[in-house]
Each structure stands twice: as C-alpha cells, then as structure tokens.
Amino acid sequence: MDDNDLIPTPSGHPRRWDATIGTGSAADLIREALEFEARGIDTCWASQLHHTPFAPLAAVAGATERIQLGSAIALAFTRSPMETALTTLDMDRLSDGRFKLGLGAGVKRLNEQWHSVSDFGRPAPHLKETVELVRLLIEQGAQGEPVRYRGRYHQVELAGWQPRYEPVRTSIPIYVAGVGEAMARVAGDVADGLLGHRVWSLPWLRDMIAPNVALGLARSGRERSDFDLALTVPVCVVGGAISVDQARRDAASGVAFYASMQGYRQIFERHGFAAQADAAREAYQSGGWGEAVIDAVDGDMLDEFCVTGSLDDCAAQLERYWAHADSIRLEPGGHQLPVEREQAYREALGTLIGER
Q1: What is the DSSP letter of 162?
Q2: What is the pTM of this model?
C-alpha cells in the first residue's frame, strides 16, 4: 500500500495508526518502540498513573528515528507549568523534534489525595490556563523573552531567564485529553489536538465531541484542518486461543472498570446505561473488583463502547471511526487481564494494523 491508496481524513492527512508503549527495562521499551516504527505506527504514546510518561519515551528517543513520541497523558496540575515546559523542551531535544505533549486533568481525588494538589478547581478552565502558559513558556520563555501570565490558577512572572540551549522547535504540539464537551471546547480553543478517551462511543464522538471541538476552533479562528483528533479505541480480537466468549468477557471488563466509577456515570446515563453503571458501581462498592462488576455490563453496553470480533470484523467496525479521526490508537479492551492474554491482544492489534 502506498500513500495514494490511503483515504484522507477530515484534516486532509493519510490515516495514521498510533500505539501505547508499555513498561519495563530500557531494552524492552526500545524493542517495542522499534517494532512500532517498523510497523509504520505514527505516534508512540506513553501514559501516566503508576509511572510518568516521560521516562519510557526518553528511553526510546535515541533508538528510534521516525516515530513521533507523545504523553497520553501527563497530568497537568501535578507539575508547575514551568516544569512541564522544561520537560517538553528536553523531550523534544532528545527526540530531535518528534515530541508531542499531551496534558489531562485527571480526576479530582487522584490529584488531591495522591499528588497533594491544593487547588484542583474547575478542571476545564484550569487546563486551559495550563496549556496557554506552557505554550508561552515554550514559545517565548525558551527564546529568552519575558513571560507574564495572570490567571485564576497560575500567576507567573518570568524575566531574566537565559536558556543555555536553542530549542529544536519554537513551537511544540500540545494536545488536551478529556471525556466531555467542556474539554472538547478547550481543545478547540487552545490546543493542537484532542486525545480521545476509551469511553467515547461513536454517537458520543459525533454528537458531543465533534460539535464542541468545532465551537472551540471557531472561537480561536481556526479550521478543522488546523487540528488533530487522535482517538483511542479499545479492541479485543478473536483468534488463536481467544474465543468469542473470552474476547467479549475481557472487553466487558474494560467497560465495567469505568462504569464502576461515579465520575463516568453521566456518560453512561446519556447512552441509556445508567442502570448497568449503577449495578457495576454497587457491585464494586460491596465486594471490590470481580466478576460481579463485569456481570453488570450487558451485550448492548459492551458493543457501544468496545470493538470485538475477528480481524475482519474489527477492521469493519473501526472503519466508522475514520469519519472523524485523524489517527486511531488501538488498545486491548480489558481491565486487569492476565499478562499473557493482554500480550496476545496486543499482537493481534499489530496484525490488524499491519494488514490495513
């Protein structure tokens, strides 16, 4: 397949497949990143929860040549904007201009109880300020220019800083991650792209995300072609030792994980799955994570939020996402799966990408 065979996306670019790098030794990470690069993956993203996104990407930056490297996500409020800007500049230097900064608010409890964030506030305006300030620090501060920012959440007076190194780029892409309408508008207002969530269904993407991105872009005076919509789609492929029933059960566990959390109830309610979400949350509260939580997810709910089936079935279902996406990052659809089965899903996703 050459570039002429690829169908343009809404922003006029060929379809791009992304992937998420795991954890492990530097050798393991480099091996995985080189496999991504050989497969034609566009961007290798790294997440943050039990580790930072920057260390795995720094480990592979010098060993790769073409693949883009991005944080999906770095928690936006647990570091100062200056620290985030400096890390972004370092990552862009290490990767020779291949870094993308993805920022997300995370949930209030995690920010306050894990990271001692004292002013989580309203996450959408807080994240908007953070993106604006990080961009100023990269595009002006790193050039030795003063930066003055006065916002509700950030007040910075940067003067007299003389960077020792010239930035590789004077502008580095910044992405915003979110679930709902407010973050989609923020992305359209101030970001270069939006990182999709695993609970974005096609109706949610079409009816909630796309219109609000468009509103933000209109307010910032930009076109859809100026913006990158990077989706994340959970997939469980049937094949080999993985039966249809196993794949669907594993996929249901991924949906159940989000359904069991109060913070996601609204999105399930809007899809007509409030009762299932309540059942999943009640099962979790009474007995912790287990089969009863997964049992709350019925077939209709599963099919709304996750792609399952053979390689051809999954490819056909993914085709519908390309009406909106500039890139799609495929991830195994389950939660807390055995390592061997998760690896089998990852290998199947590599095959799925390689055959398209």
Answers
A1: -
A2: 0.91
Residues 215/186, Cβ–Cβ less than 8 Å: no
Q: What is the per-residue pLDDT across 238-264, written as a single tens digit (0 to 9) for each?
A: 998 999 999 999 999 999 999 999 889
Q: Which residues pair with 328 in a beta bridge?
A: 17, 231
Q: Note whether 238 and 315 are within 8 A (CB).
A: no
Select from 140, 137, 131 the least CA-distant residue to 175.
131
Sketch the domain layout of the chain as residue ranges: 3-234+312-333
- The sign one gets for the Cα dihedral 143, 146, 149, 155 is positive
Q: Which two tokens stand for residue 224?
A: 């859809």
Residues 6 or more apart whose Cβ sits within 8 Å of residue 93: 165, 167, 168
Q: Which of 296, 295, 322 is nearest to 307 (CA)?
A: 322
Q: Give the model confidence (pLDDT) of 192-224 as tens digits.
A: 999 999 999 999 999 999 999 999 999 999 999
For Cα atoms 330, 336, 341, give the angle at the middle one, nearest 5 degrees.
Answer: 65
Query: If you search the block for the tokens 């101030």, which residue do you land on?
Result: 190
Residue 10 near residue 324 (C-beta atoms within 8 A): yes
Look up tokens 């055959």; give the residue. 355
Residue with tokens 């790193």: 142
CB 251 within 8 A of CB 234: yes
Dig out the tokens for 336 from the structure: 């807390």
Q: Which CATH superfamily groups domain 3-234+312-333? A: Luciferase-like domain (3.20.20.30)
CA distance 9 to 86: 33
Residue 84 CA to residue 34 CA, distance in Å, equals 27
Alpha-carbon distance 69 to 92, whole Å? Answer: 9
- Residue 246 corresponds to which tokens in the numbers above? 């196993």
DSSP assignments along 268-282, one per residue: HHHTT-HHHHHHHHH
What's the chain's Rg over C-alpha atoms?
20
Pairing of strands 147-150, 155-158: antiparallel
Matching residue, tokens 């939020």: 305
What is 233-295 written as a DSSP string? EEEEE-BTTB-HHHHHHHHHHHHHHHHTSGGGHHHHHHTT-HHHHHHHHHHHHHH-SSHHHHH
